[in-house]
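Q: I'm building a small set of examples for a reading group on sequence design. Run inverse folding on the following structure and report the sequence directly after it, with nothing in between.
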């Protein structure tokens, strides 16, 4: 004869519910190769994905120090002025002789 199921106490129910809530925060379910698998959730900061938070709040110096050059936004006005510094323009200051 089968053994009767033992009911959980209230403390056990609370502990089980708390553990389930923690697992839900830490992992998410996705389908891979036709199977449902549990993977870790990406880190979040203030409810925003960590990469998106960095893109919104980081300054160019910090991005450069951490080798995140792809996130640095370049102003087109300042980029065109900077690129002209090393070149000699025949129309500008014709009376000056370049050294």
């Amino acid at each position: 004869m089968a053994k009767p199921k033992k009911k959980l106490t209230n403390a056990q129910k609370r502990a089980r519910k708390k553990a389930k809530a923690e697992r839900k925060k830490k992992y998410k379910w996705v389908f891979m190769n036709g199977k449902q698998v549990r993977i870790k959730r990406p880190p979040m900061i203030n409810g925003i994905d960590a990469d998106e938070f960095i893109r919104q709040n980081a300054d160019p110096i910090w991005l450069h120090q951490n080798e995140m050059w792809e996130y640095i936004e370049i102003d087109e006005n300042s980029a065109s002025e900077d690129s002209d510094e090393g070149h000699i323009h025949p129309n500008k200051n014709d009376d000056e002789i370049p050294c």
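The first helix runs from residue 10 to 26.
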